Recover the amino acids of this structure.
């Protein structure tokens, strides 16, 4: 459907259209019988139409449409997908936990296939190939390449990952395996995530610090200075004021010539309607100007270089700042 058509619909017509969409998607999925192509076509339409609806209506009406989605049997069907289901259930209290991100990395890292029904695995194949998931994998690759480039040029550099999760970018680097870095510190508030970092990367010298980013902002934690400080998924949840304070703190923790990198989802991703309706996963999306605004509290005279990079799929943007 042409997305502009939704702009001409009344709220009642939009609700009727969503109900038809949900009914038809449910029918297609339950009747797919292992036909992954049929599942993909049904989800293509669901993702596209939901996001078009989201863009065409105000916040309150979109919340009403979300409730229609939550009350429909399609919710249960889609939660056969371990990715969609885990985000909605939030077993660790938040949607984007490290186990969930591992479900995105799973096929790339040859992790065991998660337990699910055949339909659940067919949906999982689609959702973890959608733009948001592709962006997460590209984000990891960007950071891994940066770590390798940085440590190749100057071995022994100190690195800090904030809200590190399972630190799976370490799987893609040679710097960790060959111990080309100095200190590599993984900071996270989730003890289960840090336990996995200790297990997987502790033998290569990676340190873990059990703390939230808030203790950095308030100067309640002194862990040294670093040549590279980065955060990948955290800023997708931070408002502008908190984001600015954290970027400023990261910059202050850099050694001369050090780099900070912050990643954030760009607005306009096709997955957003599905993520909000069926995964209960709400993010803060930032434009290029929004990313530059995060540096507003840093003295420009102290910055050597500021750049923005979009990953290969143009779903995630990186702010890269170098200190003089």
């Amino acid at each position: 459907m042409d997305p502009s058509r939704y702009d001409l619909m009344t709220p009642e017509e939009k609700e009727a259209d969503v109900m038809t969409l949900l009914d038809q998607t449910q029918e297609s999925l339950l009747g797919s019988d292992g036909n992954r192509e049929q599942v993909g076509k049904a989800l293509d339409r669901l993702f596209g139409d939901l996001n078009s609806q989201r863009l065409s209506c105000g916040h309150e009406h979109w919340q009403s449409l979300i409730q229609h989605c939550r009350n429909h049997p399609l919710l249960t069907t889609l939660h056969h997908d371990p990715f969609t289901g885990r985000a909605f259930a939030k077993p660790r209290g938040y949607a984007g936990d490290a186990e969930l991100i591992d479900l995105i990395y799973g096929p790339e890292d040859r992790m065991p296939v998660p337990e699910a029904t055949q339909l659940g695995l067919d949906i999982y194949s689609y959702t973890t190939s959608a733009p948001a998931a592709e962006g997460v994998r590209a984000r990891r690759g960007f950071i891994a390449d940066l770590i390798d480039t940085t440590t190749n040029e100057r071995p022994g550099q100190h690195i800090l990952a904030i809200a590190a999760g399972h630190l799976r970018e370490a799987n893609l680097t040679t710097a960790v395996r060959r111990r080309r870095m100095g200190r590599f510190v993984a900071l996270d508030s989730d003890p289960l995530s840090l336990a996995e970092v200790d297990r997987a990367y502790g033998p290569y010298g990676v340190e873990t610090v059990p703390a939230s980013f808030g203790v950095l902002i308030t100067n309640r934690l002194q862990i040294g200075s670093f040549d590279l400080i980065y955060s990948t998924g955290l800023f997708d949840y931070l408002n502008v004021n908190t984001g600015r304070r954290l970027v400023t703190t990261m910059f202050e923790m850099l050694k001369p010539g050090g780099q900070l990198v912050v990643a954030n989802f760009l607005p306009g991703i096709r997955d957003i309607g599905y993520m909000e309706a069926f995964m209960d996963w709400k993010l803060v999306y930032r434009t290029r100007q929004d990313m530059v605004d995060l540096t507003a509290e840093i003295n420009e005279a102290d910055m050597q270089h500021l750049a923005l990079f979009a990953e290969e799929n143009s779903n995630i943007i990186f702010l890269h700042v170098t200190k003089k």
Remarks:
- Residues 259 and 322 are 4 Å apart (CA to CA).
- The beta strands are 159-162, 184-188, 206-210, 226-231, 254-265, 303-310, 316-323.
- Residues 3-127 form one domain.
